[in-house]
Amino acid sequence: MISASDLRAGMTFVQDGKLIKVLEASHHKPGKGNTVMRMKLRDVRSGATYDTTFRPEEKFEKAHIDTKTVQYLYTMDDTAFFMDLETYDQYEIPVSTVEEEMKYILENMEVKIQFFGDEVIGIQLPTTVILTVEETQPSIKGATVTGSGKPATMETGLVVNVPDFVEAGESLEINTAEGTYVKRANK
């Protein structure tokens, strides 16, 4: 069991038979009254997100999440296919449950699948990925790194704000947690 005051972003727990992932957690001390924990949560199975508060002493069952390294193979219709690199078992995940993560994944890329028992509940991405710019405005001569930037569409469809000097066809390192440009990639 884990108390509400110990819950942090990224942790998963079980509440009323539902598998809940913490997206944001913070202590809140109103002017009057007791401290409460403000939480932004997501129901892992349904994908619904909601905000709630808990008393710090409330207890929850911590969910035991296992991860396995797999290779992304392809997407057909509305299903993404992954293969375990050791046993060659294949896993099918509905694209709707991993829609945001798919913007960072290329074919044959290695990622980690998260399991709750035998149930596949999500994908754990690497901290950064290297993607190629498909489309962006032409670079501006004399542009500096400190400029306001411009939008660039990556090969996966992800749109990232990049510096003015970036051109189509360049490979960039992208932060998967924030969806932001890090630097040019050395390929």
Summarize the structure in words:
Pfam families: EFP (PF01132), EFP_N (PF08207), Elong-fact-P_C (PF09285). Residues 67-121 form the Translation elongation factor P/YeiP central domain. Belongs to the elongation factor P family. It is found in: Cytoplasm. It is a single chain. The chain is mostly beta strands and 187 residues long. Helices cover 2% and strands 52% of the residues. The protein contains 1 helix and 16 strands. A 6-stranded antiparallel β-sheet has the order 1-6-2-3-4-5, with no helix packed on it. Strands 9-8-7-10-11 form a 5-stranded antiparallel β-sheet, with no helix packed on it. It has a 5-stranded antiparallel β-sheet with strand order 14-13-12-15-16, with no helix packed on it. The protein starts with a strand and ends with a strand.
What's the gist of this structure?
It contains 1 helix and 16 strands. By secondary structure, the chain is mainly β.
Strand and helix order: EEEEEEEEEHEEEEEEE
Task: Note the overall shape.
Answer: flat
User: Radius of gyration over alpha carbons?
Assistant: 20 Å
Question: Considering DSSP H and I runs of 4 or more, what fraction of the residues is helical?
Answer: under 10%
**N- and C-termini, Cα separation:** 46 Å
Structural class: mainly beta
